[in-house]
What we know:
homodimer, Acetylornithine deacetylase/Succinyl-diaminopimelate desuccinylase (chains A, B), 16 helices, protease (chains A, B), 22% strand, hydrolase (chains A, B), three-stranded antiparallel sheet, twelve-stranded mixed sheet, 17 strands, Cyt/Met_Dipeptidase (chains A, B)
Amino acid sequence: MADRTVEQALEAADTQLGASLERLLSFVRIPSISTDSRHRGDCRRAAEWLAGELASLGLDSAVRDTPGHPMVVAHDPAGVAGPRVLFYGHYDVQPVDPLELWDHPPFEPRIVDAGDDKHITGRGASDDKGALLTFIEACRAWKSVHGHLPASISFLFEGEEESGSPSLVPFLEANRDELSRDVVFVCDTDMWDDQTPAITTLLRGHLFEEVTLEAADRDLHSGMFGNAVRNAVELLCDILGELRGPDGAIAIPGFYDGVQPLAPEIAALWKSIPFDEAGFLARVGASVPAGEAGRSVMEQLWARPSFDICGISGGYEGEGFKAVLPAKASAKVSFRLVPGQDPDRLRTLFRQFVTERLPADCRASFSSFGASRATAIAPDGPFIGPALETLTEEWGRQAALAGTGGSIPIVGHFKRILGMDSVMVGFARFDNRVHSPNEKYDLSSFHHGIRSWVRVLGRLDEMARSQAERRSSPTEAR
Amino acid sequence: MADRTVEQALEAADTQLGASLERLLSFVRIPSISTDSRHRGDCRRAAEWLAGELASLGLDSAVRDTPGHPMVVAHDPAGVAGPRVLFYGHYDVQPVDPLELWDHPPFEPRIVDAGDDKHITGRGASDDKGALLTFIEACRAWKSVHGHLPASISFLFEGEEESGSPSLVPFLEANRDELSRDVVFVCDTDMWDDQTPAITTLLRGHLFEEVTLEAADRDLHSGMFGNAVRNAVELLCDILGELRGPDGAIAIPGFYDGVQPLAPEIAALWKSIPFDEAGFLARVGASVPAGEAGRSVMEQLWARPSFDICGISGGYEGEGFKAVLPAKASAKVSFRLVPGQDPDRLRTLFRQFVTERLPADCRASFSSFGASRATAIAPDGPFIGPALETLTEEWGRQAALAGTGGSIPIVGHFKRILGMDSVMVGFARFDNRVHSPNEKYDLSSFHHGIRSWVRVLGRLDEMARSQAERRSSPTEAR
């Protein structure tokens, strides 16, 4: 039951929706692909664009250099009382290949209005530009009505989330006092289903590695040398093919050490909320779950570690045929981790698994593209409950507590370095094609997302007022 | 024992060597990569260049169109008596990637003169531009001294040898009478070792296939879907990883049906000629033979079928890391075959091997890039013996009868369509880096190659004279 303060801000958010959308389009037009050094200037442009938006809210905002892409940090100079909140998001986006599968250029976003299906398409429309703007636009609506933000709200945006966040930890460590708050809100996750909002409390960790194998000292003719000299691509296939056993489990010895079985309460909770496994698979063209035999899709995605080959390359990949015996091959692999697994230990185990299988004359080299532990957020902290209630109000159905298969390593960093729990609220749908061609964000996600955050701001306003009352009647508060 | 006729032509070949080399440099400068459609015009240019060279020898030469790259055909209008010989070569070359491994641009050939090591570098310097020119330059030397060629010699050059020769069979079939001769000389093979020339009588066949696997209907986020949805690259690695058993043998059921054990005479012959296995492997940076356990390198390369992955591709292969779960992956694979194996049957077996291993929701598609049966040439034909003798004379050591691991499918076509045996004489060394960066051809290969062919022309001249004598004394001949 929103009070008048909240209702006024919700009306403002509705009125300003068109302008909010225009800002999202401008933001998506900046091709801020962090992993590709050709887009370094675009990443800075995206940071500057965001800093400008925050300045237009009356905040002290700045683009702060790092050894990689810059951070954007903003604080409210008004120094409002009440809960101290940090909002986090990322302005960088994934690469766009294969480009030919996009229906239109990925950085020329469009609003598609086809009856019930209204959405904005473009790289980053959902992950994370659309998502992070829901919070900024909620602040804008609130401030346009009330003249100030309802609590002490600061902002932190990075530009390296899609490439392992190498600058984030040093930045948090160097600015510990400035950035430590009571809680951090993160908007980079999914809904439970298209109608049911969710707060994510279980996050898998990750370990991203690249392995390169070398055999002969140069590419050879497959007829002149085939059979007698080792083929690097074949060797790579052999070794990667052994990484998963016939039961679908990852075959690295010791990989599952420390992994806890799914707690019976969680298993029961997940069973009680209808999850359409067949529908989930059908959305991506599948009908039978892969992975570990005998485990549900939900358990596999949220509570079990996984292994994927994200890319492989070697030999002649062009048009036609080249009868070559490749001397070199490489693969990028991703492990997703659950609580109890140590990414540094698993990196060692993975590299051992490969090197132990190298025959004579062959060499392996490795590169790391980042790693993080899994995180489980306690669902009974002071902010999760109120956030769940406001989501339930806005969407008209019970909001869920969910897990996510994707890694959000910053959540671990915020806890470890700044001592803050994260409240992860997200409005992305399963079919947003995040990281894929034709990424989209539904207008209902954007609109209800902004309105959801307005309601959360209302709760922060209540908390601030109740703190102020307690301060003015100290005897009652004790 | 060369008579004066031969000695004069040898002297001419020596005198003209500088000009011969200049012609080779001009030829290598034409980037006639047949498998790459961007080089279609260059292939025609190479054909026209060759036709011009043949015309300069007084031959009727023509560039003849095919649905692919053109053929070059030339005949001697003088209509000399004697053995009727066809010479075959190919003017197309392999692709040049990885370009960054070349010491200089592959189509800007250079003559490197470093003491004992004199060679010409560039794509095609050896395979097959340098090799085929040894014969043309021998004819030029012979003709410059004697005014005409010593026998009825015709020429056939194709431009699709490196991409499966799709136009050759129809062309041979359509021009059967024009091209049928007593024998065909082919210059596209190796020496036995750096000092020992060889005639190749055993050739492996080939089967080139591309397989593409598809799983989900688009690339996905490895965190959001990893474990629960099939990864096309992982599936491809699993299946290709199963293609070879732990003993190094190819694991496709029925693959070795019809393969004969190495004949004891051949095994004894190969044992009698010193073959430096360790040196052979060391040249390419290896020390231990791969492939089938318990078989010599020579047997594996010449008398056993082989399997290679020539290229693999899937997912994100660019700079940095992309946490993608690839929906699609493909590989180009090469099988080398021995007598007794039917490529059409093996294609079916290979495709079955893959499709039988496809899990639910996954699809495989295949493309064929050509196939040929293996060939064994009878070593007691009328041309092999004289050719062996002339090679022995020129190089000063007993010439060998060898096999080759590479496929020369034209040899089978010449036998089947035109009824001709092939005499395969080659001057390439093992370290010519054929199909690899920094391909080279030794000046000694080029020079002794030309001189070897001059001696072969001398034998043809003798045969022509002896035929003429038999014709003028018919009673003696009977």
